[in-house]
Design a protein that fits this description.
The complex is a heterodimer. Chain A is mostly helical. Chain A has 7 helices and 3 strands, in the order H-H-H-H-H-E-H-E-E-H. Chain B has a two-stranded antiparallel sheet. The chains are: A mainly alpha, B mainly alpha.
């Protein structure tokens, strides 16, 4: 049973994508979707899932929903507000710089979700990542400072706090 | 001045082409009338009443491609097969076993790609399995699945094929299996005729005026449209692994190929 559990997360993902993309819950689709989910999961789970108890944890899933809501509303609103202010002002108060932002997450999904959270908010883009030094190189439209603490607080802290509850 | 000239010519060309295609009726009469051929297709693709003429599939394009003009598609598939044989011939003697190293792209791209590949497979299979019901079909699904090989080569570098156990010979075998499955569907009516003496036609899908032979159109009340689902699934296999072969070969570096075929001469 323990062994089989490893294959559940990818199977759920594949089955859900198949059903949603097909737009049908006929028995034909449920049967094909189920076979496909098992087959793809058997092949690909070892590359995708390292800790299945994390992937199947309801608490972590709720944290993910909470983070998604926070990200899509509050975080995006704040970032847009800042960029809109810059765009509409006469002086164009930009201070662009590519800054080093240290990250603390160890889990690769947490790191990637943080990076994508930074990129998807306007004003900041992850240009590169250095996994050995655990840092992102971020282009920041208004760099408040160049030292690691300032950049971490300004760019990443909020995201990493929310995501660590999901992935770490 | 030049900008002005370009702008005027674009506007003039647009007006002239629009005039020719609409008021001069260069494309034939247009309007709300559907043309006769289109009406025939729309009426006959799924029509259990005219049993001798229908393809028993609500998807008009698949009906035309794999039933009404099925032999044409069969030859297209053969042409594709020959093109890949030509590519394999050009690269003859080149194997994938000696490629190592290669870093691929950054961690961010690698992790996202890792998650996209199972999603990609699910979508490809959905397109193939609904080829007789909704737009799509075997070729389209094959093209979608082949994207996996491009993702692997670009994101994880060509050496990832070895690590994952994807080899050219396996891809060739799967592609050939798809083509054999197409041949099986195409020749089943002939074999049936030889065994029972019933009049049939090559690549026959549903009953004809002088032939009672038909592939099953339904399985447990689910429409599978006779040959169409099998041809779509087989084409899916043949096309996806055909493209796999092409993309795998194209992702090889020139130095590796030269070394393997023993070409030493530096021109």
């Amino acid at each position: 049973m323990r062994v089989l559990k490893k294959y559940v997360p990818v199977a759920i993902l594949v089955f859900a994508v198949y059903i949603v993309f097909s737009g049908s819950i006929s028995s034909y689709d449920i049967i094909i979707g189920a076979f496909l989910a098992v087959a793809v999961s058997l092949i690909s789970s070892k590359y995708i899932v390292k800790d299945e108890s994390k992937a199947l944890s309801l608490r972590r899933f709720l944290h993910l929903v909470k983070y998604a809501l926070y990200y899509l509303t509050i975080a995006e609103f704040k970032a847009h507000k800042m960029v809109i202010k810059i765009v509409l002002s006469r002086e164009m108060p930009v201070k662009p710089a590519i800054v080093r932002v240290p990250y603390r997450s160890r889990n690769e999904y947490a790191v990637v979700a943080s990076a994508n959270s930074i990129t998807n908010t306007p004003g900041t883009i992850v240009v590169d990542i250095d996994p050995e030094k655990s840092q992102f190189y971020v282009h920041w439209i208004y760099a408040a400072g160049l030292d690691p603490e300032t950049t971490y607080i300004g760019v990443l802290e909020e995201f990493e706090k929310g995501l660590s509850k999901v992935f770490e | 001045m030049r900008k002005y000239f370009v702008l005027v010519s674009i506007v003039l060309a647009t007006v002239v082409i629009a005039y020719i295609t609409t008021y001069l009726r260069a494309l034939g009469p247009i309007g709300l009338d559907t043309r006769y051929l289109a009406k025939l297709f729309l009426m006959l693709t799924y029509n259990p009443v005219y049993r001798e003429l229908t393809a028993m599939s609500p998807e008009a394009v698949t009906s035309i491609v794999w039933d009404f003009r099925g032999v044409d598609t069969l030859y297209e598939t053969v042409v594709f097969y020959m093109a890949i044989i030509a590519a394999l011939t050009i690269y003859r003697g080149v194997s994938y076993s000696s490629i190592w190293g290669g870093y691929g792209l950054s961690l961010i791209v690698r992790v996202v790609t890792k998650l996209l590949i199972p999603i990609n497979i699910a979508i490809a299979v959905s397109i193939a399995a609904h080829g007789h019901l909704t737009p799509g079909g075997g070729f389209q699904a094959g093209a979608v699945l082949a994207v996996v090989s491009v993702l692997l080569a670009v994101t994880y570098s060509a050496s990832s094929f070895i690590k994952l156990g994807v080899s050219l010979s396996k891809a060739v075998a799967l592609r050939s299996a798809g083509l054999l499955a197409i041949a099986l569907v195409v020749f089943t009516p002939i074999v049936f005729s030889a065994l029972t003496g019933v009049q049939t036609y090559i690549m026959q899908n549903y009953v004809k005026i002088d032939s009672s032979f038909s592939f099953p159109t339904h399985v447990w009340n689910q429409l599978i449209s006779g040959t169409l689902i099998w041809l779509n699934l087989a084409e899916f296999l043949a096309v996806s692994f055909g493209f796999f072969i092409i993309f795998m070969l194209l992702s090889l570096r020139e130095e590796v190929v030269r070394e393997q075929i023993g070409e030493k001469d530096e021109h």
